[in-house]
């Protein structure tokens, strides 16, 4: 227990509010990615990571040079839509725009070191995406095992009834 607390104490944290936002962002990514099948979850994960990557680059470059401004955010959302559509991923436009809006608003709320926000949200998203894909895989595996054992036990029960 002591070791775990020691490791957590050495974890870098900007603020409690930022930790909460990061946790929420990871949960949103998990919910966004989790689908009925593992293959669908992987496709959703790739889509989410493509959208967050475009948002990450645009917001980071902007925030390295400029402070938050509503017109800057609007420009980034427009540029993001054009880039994603040009890349042949028009379905990712909404996710890219939402991500840019959230990152920029959080940067406005915490202007000191605002350039860190895209990096942190990228990490939070990657964690959430990994959890969503892992849970989808575990659920698919559990369903296969359940079906396999369900068939075996029902077949044995039916064979026993016939005897």
Strand segment count:
0
Secondary-structure content class? mainly alpha
Order of helices and strands: HHHHHH
- Weakly predicted, low-confidence segments: 1-9
Residues in β-strands, percent: under 5%
- Average pLDDT score: 83
Could you please describe the fold and organization of this structure?
The chain has helices at residues 2-9, 16-33, 38-65, 70-86, 93-109, 116-162. By secondary structure, the chain is mainly alpha-helical. The protein has one domain (16-135). The protein is elongated, with a radius of gyration of 22 Å. The protein starts with a helix and ends with a helix. Mean pLDDT is 83; it is low at 1-9.
Summarize it.
With 163 residues, the chain is an all-alpha fold. The chain contains six helices and no strands.
Secondary structure elements and their pairing?
Elements: H1 2-9, H2 16-33, H3 38-65, H4 70-86, H5 93-109, H6 116-162
Give the key terms.
163 residues, disordered N terminus, 6 helices, single chain, mainly alpha, 83% helix
């Amino acid at each position: 227990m002591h070791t775990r607390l020691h490791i957590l104490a050495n974890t870098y944290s900007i603020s409690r509010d930022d930790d909460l936002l990061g946790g929420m962002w990871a949960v949103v990514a998990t919910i966004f990615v989790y689908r009925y099948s593992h293959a669908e979850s992987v496709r959703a994960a790739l889509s989410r990571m493509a959208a967050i990557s475009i948002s990450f680059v645009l917001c980071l470059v902007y925030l390295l040079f400029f402070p938050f401004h509503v017109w800057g955010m609007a420009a980034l959302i427009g540029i993001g839509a054009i880039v994603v559509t040009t890349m042949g991923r028009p379905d990712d436009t909404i996710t890219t725009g939402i991500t840019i809006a959230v990152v920029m608003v959080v940067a406005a709320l915490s202007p000191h070191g605002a350039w860190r926000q895209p990096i942190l949200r990228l990490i939070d998203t990657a964690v959430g995406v990994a959890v969503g894909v892992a849970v989808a895989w575990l659920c698919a595996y559990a369903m296969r095992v359940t079906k396999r054992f369900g068939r075996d036990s029902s077949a044995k029960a039916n064979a026993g009834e016939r005897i």
